[in-house]
Design brief:
The protein is an alpha/beta fold. It has 17 helices and 20 strands. A hairpin with a 2-residue loop joins strand 1 and strand 2. Helix 2 runs parallel beside helix 8, helix 3 runs antiparallel to helix 6 and helix 3 packs across helix 7. The protein binds NADPH dihydro-nicotinamide-adenine-dinucleotide phosphate (NDP). NADPH dihydro-nicotinamide-adenine-dinucleotide phosphate (NDP) binds next to helix 8 and helix 9.
């Protein structure tokens, strides 16, 4: 069944050189509503040749187009116009995001608000940028460090926060003066298609923003194994990040990879009880755990561990799961059958490895949920340790593991005992302990007595195998810029290195 979202996202879904078109081979892909398991839209699916066309369009728009040299104020105005259109269409975009990802409408609305903030933030930030004057100590020389657009960018996003993740890339790329090819996940392309239509309406010039969607495994080579791209910004899983990094290295193409996380949430015995229970719960079960910064490893003080886990188990059982469009739902289904299979497999492995299942572990026992949906209840495994796959791997679902500690040193060692390093939380009422922990944790974002928050003005990214590069904040703009030093001698003189030879 094709709903009215087909109309909203238009008849054709590849956007190349300012034109909407079908795939070169006429291919399409069914898009599935995770709450029902049924098809609710059909989109054009790009071929590798379409991806190559998109790169050629972006290359031409960068090399011969006006966008890279458009004054910053005009670029910033364009970002603000996009933000205004996002405000206008927020309700519809949120609805599309919910149908596509399964997340609740309230979460999707927050996502769209965040997207709007990102565009406004980068519009303002770019306007405050200025050249850096360097005193080189030579009379008559003016030395300046300036920033210029890096060039053609390939922007690849995952399915968990489709529009949010791609906006963290498109907004700084656009304002920096780059041209780009956006590739959303094959699972969740609809909000990005609708968004590109808004960009067209806002006046993004042809070739500056191109859109292809389709399987990464099919388009990846065309998008990354090329000398025509200057920067690849990728958000997704570790294994894909590795493939892209290896391919880009052949071309010495700059890459930023924002990868997964296995994020500890450390609770000391003196932490505020109620907020700790609620935030550990929300930190792992929001969006059914399909969040890169999800706090999936509870590391809790032995002094309170049993009581704390009991409280979590009780509250987890009360989380209302359902169709994201139902206002009563507090969390939605998993995004796909593949994710559901993955959770079931982790439950089996964890049980074999000796973890103690305290709640969940399968679909909720409810007969009012659509049997075609990808339902998996909030799950807590107690008595876990680092030897277990469930503690080491990024499960990317609603599974919380529990480890215990007796000393702060032990808590810190456990929190850092991961290949990843994306995000961590610490809860304590002792400021000195808190400071010691937040400085000691090797993670890109650390929350103290809070969890999950971010702002467009502060950098986001990971240590270790959570990736390299940063998104958001000034560094998130710098990723899309080349740095150039301009040495200007305002009083050139003939006196040079070899002058004395002439005089001799
Ligand atoms: P994947 O790595 O499977 O996919 C991410 C994107 O890469 C998708 O668009 C995918 O396309 C594409 N892709 C797949 N293979 C290739 C390839 N060979 N070349 C180029 N592109 C390719 O990740 P998921 O979509 O499953 O997303 C979940 C992951 O993303 C988790 O690990 C999560 O932690 C991470 N993530 C990290 C964030 C961060 O800020 N660090 C934020 C959000 C998520 P397709 O979908 O068609 O396969």
């Amino acid at each position: 069944m094709v709903g009215d979202h087909h109309l909203y996202v238009g008849d054709h879904h590849l956007y190349i050189d300012g034109r909407w078109r079908a795939a070169g081979d006429g291919g399409t892909r069914d898009i599935i509503n995770p709450a029902t398991g049924s098809v609710f839209a059909v989109v054009d699916e790009a071929t590798p040749a379409d991806a190559t066309d998109a790169i050629a369009a972006a290359r031409a728009a960068f090399d011969a187009g006006e966008w890279p040299a458009t004054p910053i104020a005009e670029r910033a105005d364009l970002l603000r116009r996009i933000a205004d259109l996002l405000v206008r269409d927020k309700a519809e975009l949120a609805r599309i995001e919910t149908l596509d990802t399964g997340k609740t409408l309230a979460e999707s609305e927050i996502d769209i608000d965040d997207v709007i903030s990102v565009f406004r933030y980068y519009a303002s930030l770019a306007e405050t940028e200025s050249d850096r004057l360097v005193d080189v100590g030579v009379a008559g020389v003016i030395s300046r460090v300036v920033h210029e657009p890096i060039g053609v960018c390939v922007l690849i996003a995952p399915w968990n926060y489709p529009l949010l993740q791609i906006s963290w890339k498109i907004a700084p790329a656009l304002v920096a003066g780059c041209t780009m090819i956006a590739k959303p996940s094959e699972v969740t392309p609809l909000s990005t298609i609708a968004f590109v239509r808004l960009c067209e309406e806002a006046g993004v010039p042809p070739g500056v923003l191109n859109l292809v969607q389709g399987a990464g495994s099919r388009l990846g080579t065309a998008l990354t194994d090329t000398d025509d791209v200057d920067f690849i910004s990728f958000t997704g899983g570790l294994s894909t990040g590795r493939i892209i990094s290896e391919t880009a290295a052949k071309h010495v193409t700059k890459v930023a990879v924002e990868l997964g996380g296995k994020n500890p949430h450390i609770v000391f015995a003196d932490a505020d009880w109620d907020s700790s229970v609620e935030q550990v719960l929300a930190g792992v079960f929001l969006h059914s755990g399909q969040v890169c910064s999800s706090g999936t490893r509870l590391i809790v003080d032995s002094a309170i561990a049993d009581r704390f886990v009991d409280a979590l188990v009780e509250r987890a059982g009360q989380i209302r799961m359902g169709d994201g469009l139902d206002p009563a739902s507090k969390t939605g289904p998993l995004v796909s059958q593949a994710q559901l299979d993955k959770m079931n497999s982790y439950v089996a492995t964890a049980t074999e490895e000796g973890a103690v299942l305290r709640c969940g572990g399968g679909p909720p026992e409810r007969d009012d949920l659509d049997p075609g949906g990808y339902w998996f209840a909030p799950t807590i495994f107690d008595r876990c340790d680092r030897s277990m796959a469930i503690v080491r791997d990024e499960t990317f679902g609603p599974i919380l593991t529990v480890e215990r500690f007796d000393t702060a040193a032990e808590a810190l060692a456990l929190g850092n005992d991961t290949d990843y390093g994306l995000a961590a939380g610490v809860r304590t009422s002792d400021d000195a302990v808190g400071e010691h922990m937040v400085r000691g944790l090797r993670h890109g974002t650390v929350w103290l007595n809070d969890f999950g928050y971010y702002t467009p003005a502060a950098e986001w990214g990971g240590f270790g195998k959570s990736g390299n590069g940063r998104e958001l904040g000034p560094t998130g703009l710098a990723e899309y810029q080349e740095t150039k030093h301009i040495w200007h001698n305002t009083a050139p003189s003939a006196s040079q290195w070899f002058t004395h030879e002439k005089d001799d």
